[in-house]
Design brief:
By secondary structure, the protein is mainly alpha-helical. The chain contains 19 helices and 4 strands. It is globular, with a radius of gyration of 23 Å.
């Protein structure tokens, strides 16, 4: 049996994921209804995800250095709940205030997510007495249920709340115009209850002595400064120094329509990535020690996470845009404007379902079968190739579906989750059509989109655990927090920053009405990025220290449950409370 204290901790994670994916799946469509274009609303959605990952550094630092893991989680869970209520109020008909919405979502929810994600799983693992005879088995079981709650929360958000947001809940008496207010209020109420139960459970939590944490960031910068006399050392300082600039430029680029800024965002990101990979290709110019061991992992983690998660980011942007211009009606005989329609985010259900179903299939059937047949473990290289292949295949299938959609007739029914129609005025400028009307849906069956969503999920299972395991094994114990923090950044913040810039740069290919653009070009470009990613990954992996290649031969079955769409990448391992920033097997936002 689990300790009673685990229940409110799991509840917090369940509600946080439910809220996070409710906003992830619906803020793009709400912003479109406020006049933002198809590409800019996608860019803003990706930028918000980027900020949520960046905030994990703040949450980890606050827990390990200032407030402790309980107070950090409680305080930022409260901010999370306040942010969701603010967003719901901003969506209330008659209010519909962008400024209030941005404060709630981009401000408070981002801070809340950053406080919860790197800490709550570690706190849950802390509830198991390490001296108990079955502690390891119980902890492994806890991670399984923890992972399950993540996917249940995301399934509710994708399967129910996102469609309530864009179409209302007629069966509950909620009209279409109150949909976002109602769905976001439901999500906010879940988060508020979770925060309340978490605080009330304080008397039950197992106390873990706060250990003095070594100033690992100071150690890292001191090591980099020691090597700054060489050309590679200077390049390393350039790369690390560009990271906050990449974040800042991507943030501004999402809000400001400027062609120079679009180019600058991509150039700065590529310069940062190239500098870090080149500088840490060979770290012999740095003094030996734990920091150098961590930096040996940087090229692999950066290249693998960046290229794969650019592909993965399409599930919250162009996949959603495509699904929203397909026939999403629940009743195909209903041609009314008010008829209930599934939000395009509904089909993202295939992603967590694929992860839940295929993870044990891989772990207990496919991998053992390959080992029995060949006499060898499935290598890291094979897993990464297979994972990238599934993600690239998802892009190509989505492109094929889009070609079919474009050839199908257009219905007279506006899609609730598509952007507004645009027309040219007398001077030739593209303006919003008045009276406002959503782009009409095609007759194409929207359930076709289940296939690309599921394929990306399978790709995540194959790639993410490999990189998470590499990050865990690649650092000495005192440095695991540092390397996991970088892995968080490489997995979520940097790819979303780059994908956001790409979304803005390809605006002409993804107009409000996809029939006037060329969405398959975006998919083909993503596929090319994936192929380049495979080549670059093996190039850096081939030159990596042997200890990193050998580390994957260890049993990493626990890591199989760490893969998400980031649909459930929130598992953890070490129980040291001081490791709030990510001392874990797979402590991922």
């Amino acid at each position: 049996m689990f300790p009673l204290a685990v229940v409110p901790i799991i509840l917090v994670e369940f509600c946080e994921r439910l809220c996070y994916y409710t906003f992830s799946g619906t803020q793009k469509t709400w912003l479109q209804d406020r006049g933002y274009s198809n590409s800019q609303s996608s860019s803003l959605n990706l930028t918000w995800a980027m900020l949520s990952y960046v905030a994990c550094f703040f949450g980890g630092w606050l827990a390990s250095s200032k407030l402790g893991i309980f107070m950090t989680t409680a305080a930022l869970s409260f901010l999370y709940a306040v942010g969701t209520y603010l967003a719901a109020y901003a969506a209330l008909p008659g209010v519909e205030n962008i400024t209030i919405y941005l404060i709630g979502v981009f401000g408070l929810i981002t801070l809340g997510a950053g406080g919860i994600k790197p800490n709550v799983c570690t706190m849950g693992a802390n509830q198991f007495d390490p001296d108990a005879p079955n502690a390891n088995e119980q902890r492994a079981s806890f991670f399984m249920y923890f992972y399950l709650t993540i996917n249940v929360g995301s399934a509710i958000s994708h399967g129910i709340l996102s469609s309530w947001a864009s179409s209302g809940a007629p069966s509950l008496g909620v009209s279409l115009e109150y949909g976002y207010f109602f769905a976001w209020t439901v999500a906010a109420s879940f988060m508020a209850l979770a925060c309340l139960f978490f605080v009330l459970g304080r008397c039950c939590y197992r106390k873990v002595e706060q250990k003095k944490e070594a100033p690992v960031l100071n150690m890292m910068f001191e090591t980099l400064l020691e090597g700054s006399g060489s050309s590679m050392g200077k390049l390393a300082l350039l790369g690390w120094g560009l990271i906050p600039i990449v974040i800042a430029v991507a943030f501004v680029n999402a809000f400001v329509e400027n062609n120079i800024l679009k180019v600058a965002a991509i150039v700065v990101a590529l310069t940062c990535i190239g500098s870090l990979v080149a500088a840490h290709w060979d770290n012999s110019y740095l003094p030996a020690g734990g920091v150098r061991m961590c930096l040996d992992c940087v090229p692999i983690l950066l290249v693998g996470n960046l290229f794969f998660n650019i592909l993965q980011s399409t599930i919250g942007s162009v996949f959603l845009s495509e699904a929203c211009q397909m026939d999403t009606r629940t009743d195909r005989s209903d041609f009314s404007v008010e008829g209930f329609q599934r939000n395009g985010d509904f089909f993202r259900l295939a992603n967590p379902i694929a992860i839940v179903v295929v993870t044990p299939l891989m772990d207990f059937v496919i991998y053992p079968l390959v080992k029995r047949t060949t006499g060898r473990e499935v290598s890291m290289g094979i897993k990464v190739i297979a994972g990238f292949s599934f993600a690239i295949g998802a892009q190509l299938i989505a492109a094929a579906i889009e070609y079919q959609r474009r050839s199908d007739p257009v219905l007279s029914v506006p899609s609730h989750c598509a952007p507004y129609m645009m027309v040219k005025d007398s001077s030739g400028h593209v303006v919003m059509k008045e009276p406002r009307e959503h782009v009409h849906m095609s007759t194409t069956n929207s359930f076709y989109m289940l296939a690309p969503y599921a394929m990306v999920g399978i790709g995540e299972i194959l790639v993410n655990p490999v990189l998470q395991h590499l990050a865990y094994e690649g650092a000495p114990p005192e440095m695991k927090s540092l390397l996991q923090a970088f892995n968080l950044f490489a997995m979520g913040a940097l790819p979303n920053a780059v994908a956001s810039s790409i979304s803005q740069a390809l605006k002409a290919q993804v107009p409000n009405d996809l029939n006037n653009g060329n969405l398959p070009v975006v998919y083909f470009l993503n596929s090319a990025i994936g192929l380049v990613g495979i080549f670059c990954f093996f190039f850096v992996f081939h030159h990596a220290p042997e200890r990193l290649k050998d580390s994957h031969s260890k049993d990493c079955r626990d890591m199989a449950t760490a893969s998400t769409d980031n649909e459930g990448s929130d598992t953890g391992g070490e129980t040291d409370e001081s490791s709030g920033s990510g001392s874990s097997d797979a402590d991922v936002c």
